[in-house]
Structure formats: structure tokens, C-alpha cells
Amino acid sequence: MVHPPRSRFHRVSVDGYTRVALDFRTMQAVVPAAGRGSRLGELTANRPKGLVDVAGRPLLAHVFDRAIEAGADELVVVIGYEAARIVDRFGDEYRGTPITYVHQRDRRGLAHAVVQTEPHVDGPFLVVNGDNIFTESLRPVVRALDRDGVDGALAVEEVSREADRRTGGVE
After folding, report:
1. How far is CA 69 from CA 32, 101, 111, 117, 130, in A?
2. Measuring CA to CA, which of 12, 37, 49, 96 is 20 to 30 A from 43?
3. How far is CA 170 from the centre of its chain?
4. Are 29 and 117 spatial neighbours (Cβ–Cβ below 8 Å)?
5. Pairing verdict, β 97-103 and 125-127
6. In the structure, what pLDDT confidence band is assigned to residue 5 with cuts at 50, 70 and 90?
7. How far apart are CA 170 and CA 146, in angstroms?
8. pLDDT of 64 above 50
9. Nearest C-alpha neighbor of 76 from the set 105, 106, 97, 54
10. pTM, full prediction
């Protein structure tokens, strides 16, 4: 289901007067999950990589859990390859957290996927790749955004030189 763009403003009634307040408690998580997962070979031969079983649950379930634990109150999931299977599996919400699906018809990479969510994202948001499982909490990344002068934060993980050569890295 595609939910309308939400507003960070809400109406508050105080002593019979209606006021408009800005809600700073909301944060959306953008989860790019449109890719085919061709490097996973047989695991994605008949399903999208977000539905590959990891420890008895779909990969996306692990990603959603980390995003919600970090404070996301809505998941904006970018779908593409085998999109209907992801929608059928998760529906309109995950563990009480609403899901908005954005279809990336032309898959042109991660940045393109995130841009596709613009009409559905309002305010602070967290981008969590749909094919990454984090062992650590994402809360420190989110807390870093509360500091004055910080417009963005990037969580990275140390990997071997071999992994860096295969998939790229951050210096």
C-alpha cells in the first residue's frame, strides 16, 4: 500500500485552542530492496534477495527490526525485482510499523532508489540497505544527527582488503 506523504506537523488542542506543533519524534527508514541479488546465485533464483532465509527469517525482517530499534516509525521500502512477493510477504505493516512501498521501475543504483522515495519522505530519515544485517545497534548513528551542525551520518564497517576490492569501501 502506498501511504500519502506525511506531515511533521500535527494539531494539538490546549485549553480549547488548537495549535499546530512540529513533531520531532518521527523518523522514517528508507530500505532499498529493489535489486535482483544476482551475486547470491541459487539463493535468488526464485525469490528476491530480501526474502532469502537468514537464521529462519527473511533478510528484510532483520533489516526492519534494526531500523525500528533505531527509532523508525515508518518503513519506506523500495521494491523492484519480484516486488509483489515482498509486498505479499510483509503487507502494510511490520510489527505495527507502517510500510510504504515505492516501486523503482528502472533500477539505476542505490542513489536512484533513494531519490525515488522523495515524495514519501518528510523530515529525518535513515537509509538502511535491504541486504545488510547489522550486528550493532544503529541508534548511535541516529543520535549523531541530534548534534548541532550535523546534517548526515554514515555507518561503516571494517572489512578485509579482499572484500573492499570486491564490493568497494570507504576511506
Report:
1. 18, 20, 24, 21, 15
2. 96
3. 20
4. no
5. unpaired
6. very low
7. 23
8. yes
9. 97
10. 0.79
- Report the chain's mean pLDDT, rounded to a whole number: 83
CA nearest neighbour of 78 among 86, 69, 68, 66: 86
Q: Burial level of 66, CB count in 10 A (0-12/13-18/19+)? A: buried
pLDDT tens for each residue of 94-135? 999 999 999 999 989 899 999 999 999 988 889 999 998 888
CA distance 47 to 110: 20
Q: How far apart are the first and last CA of the chain?
A: 39
Res. 8: pLDDT tops 50: no
Strands (E), the chain: 9-14, 17-22, 28-33, 53-54, 57-58, 74-79, 93-94, 97-103, 125-127
Residue whose cell numbers read 511490520: 94
Residue reference for cell 510489527: 95
C-alpha cell at 40: 547470491
Residue with more model confidence, 20 or 116: 116
Dist. CA 63–CA 86, nearest whole Å: 13
Q: Give the ranges where 5-125 is alpha helix by DSSP (H).
A: 59-69, 83-90, 110-116
Query: Identity (one letter) of the amino acid at 59?
Result: L
